């Protein structure tokens, strides 16, 4: 009788949990569809009001270019999301436009870091999807123009390069801008079978790493010619540093470069030893003096919320989950995140929210690694808040101040490339996308790992 009763309870439990799983899956699937519809609506607004230009201004229904001439950043950056969502006509339209109607031979100075992650990364993702040789030609042409920036005494790129003349300027640069190139330039080396790009990128990363302090920490801002640290002695993992660490690990994942593995091992050990801090029961990664390891400013930027994703994928899952809890707590203080936050004063010191993706990216990685529905619930809340505060009649826009929710008139290109993509992926059924066989660039452009044959990687990247 007792056995019968226990069996009945187990069947009831399984039945209910099966029903819950079903409900969760259906709810997530309909959110994925909603994200796709919103992406399409925003893309149509870009086409209507800003086609051919870099960025949509969704309130004035106008456009803005980053420089004197457009670089078509939105379509190039948006492509991999549009393709992943199965918006085939739009994807084909962008592919044709990029291969037949765009020239990068423009007499303008561009920010090397920003165009690398958005334009070179976007073009390479497009090539991987289409195998259109004209797209690869565009990527190669762009890579060659960018390469001129790396011709400095240290190998760290200048801040600006003129796409037409190859002239450079700007000799102080933050660490993210100095050393986050190995991923895109490694992929370019692979597809063009020319190691020059990866070698230049790796030299820049190592030039930063080689200037670490005795306790293994790097600074924030460096002089391209002298290799000296300037402005402050602080170090952290946030805005201005973030992707330097991200690309070390992703180059290991993608290319298996043993030297980068050593660089990553030494870097993550120093980070974990000196930067984490417990405050009021939560885990924070604030600022630290790079020479003494002493805590300085208890400040984070919303870019730092990429770190749970990197911790999770590199095998530090518990730490990743704890850190994501902190970010979730911060989101809930406002209903969106502030760009800069002092966690001891509990103050948003720079309260803008630019439609950034990092907290959603980390929720997606953690959902993948734990399959815990709580991460989808987190993402659902972020999505509802973005719908509430950032949605406009035609697209989405930034918020000037997360305390008042006053809107700004700008839809950053990474909203297409990253934010919408990570929302779509976390709500889609896991079979939609083979996470373990892909590595995302810092701009969320996905690249398929099994397209990179290890023996060929060594030859083509010069490892
Ligand atoms: C993106 O442009 C990239 O992810 C970059 O590395 C830092 N973060 C922004 C978006 O917040």
Written overview of the protein:
- It contains 16 helices and 19 strands.
- It has 2 domains: 27-65 and 298-427, Glycosyltransferase; 103-275 and 434-463, Glycosyltransferase.
- It has helices at residues 2-50, 73-84, 88-101, 112-130, 133-147, 175-179, 182-192, 196-209, 242-255, 258-274, 307-313, 317-334, 358-370, 373-390, 413-427, 454-461; strands at residues 55-57, 62-64, 109-111, 160-162, 168-169, 172-174, 221-223, 229-230, 234-235, 276-279, 282-285, 288-289, 299-301, 340-342, 347-350, 399-401, 406-407, 438-440, 446-448.
- The strands form 8 sheets. The chain has a 3-stranded antiparallel sheet with strand order 3-4-5. A 3-stranded antiparallel sheet has the order 6-7-8.
- It is mainly α and 463 residues long.
- Helix 1 (2-50) packs antiparallel against helix 15 (413-427).
- Bound molecules: 1-deoxymannojirimycin.
- 1-deoxymannojirimycin (DMJ) binds next to helix 9.
Summary?
The protein has 2 domains: 27-65 and 298-427, Glycosyltransferase (Alpha/alpha barrel), CATH 1.50.10; 103-275 and 434-463, Glycosyltransferase (Alpha/alpha barrel), CATH 1.50.10.
């Amino acid at each position: 009788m007792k056995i019968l009763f226990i069996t009945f309870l187990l069947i009831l439990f399984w039945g209910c949990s099966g029903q819950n799983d079903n409900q969760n899956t259906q709810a997530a699937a309909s959110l994925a569809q909603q994200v796709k519809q919103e992406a399409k609506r925003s893309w149509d607004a870009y086409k209507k009001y800003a086609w051919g230009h870099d960025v949509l201004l969704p309130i004035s229904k106008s456009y803005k270019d980053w420089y004197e001439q457009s670089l078509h950043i939105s379509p190039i950056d948006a492509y991999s999301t549009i393709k992943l969502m199965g918006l085939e006509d739009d994807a084909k339209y962008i592919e044709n436009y990029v291969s037949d109607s765009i020239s990068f031979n423009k007499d303008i100075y561009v920010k090397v870091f920003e165009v690398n992650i958005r334009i070179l990364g976007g073009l390479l993702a497009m090539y991987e999807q289409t195998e259109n040789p004209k797209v690869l030609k565009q990527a190669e042409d762009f890579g060659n123009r960018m390469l001129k920036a790396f011709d400095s005494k240290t190998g760290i790129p200048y801040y600006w390069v003129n796409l037409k003349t190859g002239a450079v300027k700007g000799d102080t640069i933050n660490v993210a801008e100095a050393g986050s190139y190995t991923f895109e330039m490694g992929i370019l080396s692979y597809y063009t079978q020319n190691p020059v790009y990866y070698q230049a990128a790796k030299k820049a990363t190592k030039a930063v790493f080689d200037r670490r302090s005795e306790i293994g920490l790097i600074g924030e801002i460096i002089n391209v010619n002298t290799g000296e640290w300037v402005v402050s002695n602080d170090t952290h993992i946030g805005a201005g540093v973030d992707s330097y660490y991200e690309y070390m690990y992703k180059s290991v994942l993608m290319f298996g470069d043993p030297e980068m593995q050593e660089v990553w091992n030494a870097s993550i050990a120093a980070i974990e030893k000196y930067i984490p801090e417990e405050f009021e029961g939560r885990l924070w990664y604030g600022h630290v003096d790079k020479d003494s390891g002493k805590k300085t400013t208890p400040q984070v930027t919303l870019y730092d919320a990429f770190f749970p994703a990197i911790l999770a994928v590199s095998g530090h899952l518990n730490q990743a989950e704890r850190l994501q809890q902190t970010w979730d707590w911060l989101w809930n203080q406002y209903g969106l995140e502030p760009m800069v936050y002092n966690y001891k004063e509990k103050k948003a010191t720079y309260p803008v929210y630019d439609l950034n993706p990092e907290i959603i990216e980390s929720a997606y990685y953690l959902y993948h690694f734990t399959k815990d529905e709580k991460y989808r619930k987190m993402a659902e809340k972020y999505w509802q808040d973005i719908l509430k505060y950032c949605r406009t009649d035609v697209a989405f826009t930034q918020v000037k101040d997360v305390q008042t929710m006053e809107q700004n008139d700008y839809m950053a290109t990474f909203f297409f490339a990253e934010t919408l993509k990570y929302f779509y992926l976390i709500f889609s059924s896991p079979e939609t996308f083979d996470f373990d066989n892909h590595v995302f660039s810092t701009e969320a452009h996905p690249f398929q790992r099994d397209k990179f044959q290890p023996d060929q990687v060594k030859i083509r990247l010069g490892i």
